[in-house]
């Protein structure tokens, strides 16, 4: 594996762990506001991002790359509404998609086919991630100003399984 690809994968590992930390902070905020379903959904998202980072670490190790972990910045609690939280989540998922696409572009230009294969799986998963969050944002928008509707959305978020 070329050094520039290993370094880029290490940056992506940092992005995945940073995402996990963000989702954990958002989960705590939602729980503190009584949105237990949203907190549950975001906690599962935290775990998923950790799994992505660990998968990339395993991949680097299999390819004899050097794993370098970056510091994870703090995500200070910021009180957000349910709608703001999931709009922020959607923006964040789009940023993750852009980062994966950039890494995939590098692997294509360097003809690293194994890394391309791995990252194509991540790119496909991001389509699903963005779609899922877009649906949540849309459901919340339909319920704006309707507390009962928001509580039903929250209950539905609590049904998410790993």
From TrEMBL:
InterPro entries listed in its UniProt record: Ferritin, Ferritin-like, Ferritin-like_diiron, Ferritin-like_SF, Ferritin_DPS_dom, Ferritin_prok
Broadest EC class?
Answer: oxidoreductase
Q: In which domain of life is the source organism classified?
A: Bacteria
User: Which segments of the protein form a coiled coil according to its record?
Assistant: none
Q: Where in the cell is it found?
A: Cytoplasm
Q: Which PROSITE patterns match?
A: FERRITIN_LIKE (PS50905)
Catalyses which reaction(s):
4 Fe(2+) + O2 + 6 H2O = 4 iron(III) oxide-hydroxide + 12 H(+)
What cellular-component terms does GO give this entry?
cytosol
Q: Which GO terms describe its biological process?
A: intracellular iron ion homeostasis; iron ion transport
Alphabetized, the UniProt keywords read: Cytoplasm, Iron, Iron storage, Metal-binding, Oxidoreductase
- Which one Pfam family would you cite for this protein? Ferritin
Q: Its Enzyme Commission number?
A: 1.16.3.2
| Binding site residues for Fe cation | 16, 49, 52, 93, 126
Domain Ferritin-like diiron: where?
1-144
What would you give as a GO molecular function for this chain, any one?
A: ferroxidase activity
Supply the PANTHER family for this chain.
BACTERIAL NON-HEME FERRITIN, FERRITIN
Which function does this protein serve?
A: Iron-storage protein.
Name the family. Belongs to the ferritin family. Prokaryotic subfamily.
In its UniProt entry, what is this protein called?
A: Ferritin
């Amino acid at each position: 594996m070329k050094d520039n690809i290993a370094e880029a994968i290490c940056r992506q590992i940092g992005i995945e762990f940073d995402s996990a930390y963000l989702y954990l902070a958002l989960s705590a905020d939602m729980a503190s506001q009584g949105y237990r379903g949203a907190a549950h959904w975001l906690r599962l998202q935290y775990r998923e991002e950790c799994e992505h980072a660990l998968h990339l670490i395993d991949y680097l190790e299999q390819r004899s790359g050097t794993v370098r972990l970056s510091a994870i910045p703090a995500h200070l609690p910021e009180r957000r509404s349910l709608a703001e939280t999931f709009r922020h989540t959607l923006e964040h998922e789009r940023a993750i998609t852009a980062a994966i696409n950039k890494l995939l572009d590098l692997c294509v230009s360097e003809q690293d086919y194994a890394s391309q294969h791995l990252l194509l799986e991540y790119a496909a998963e991001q389509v699903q991630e963005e779609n899922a969050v877009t649906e949540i944002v849309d459901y919340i928008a339909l319920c704006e100003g309707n507390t009962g509707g928001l509580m039903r959305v929250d209950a539905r978020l609590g049904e998410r399984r790993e």
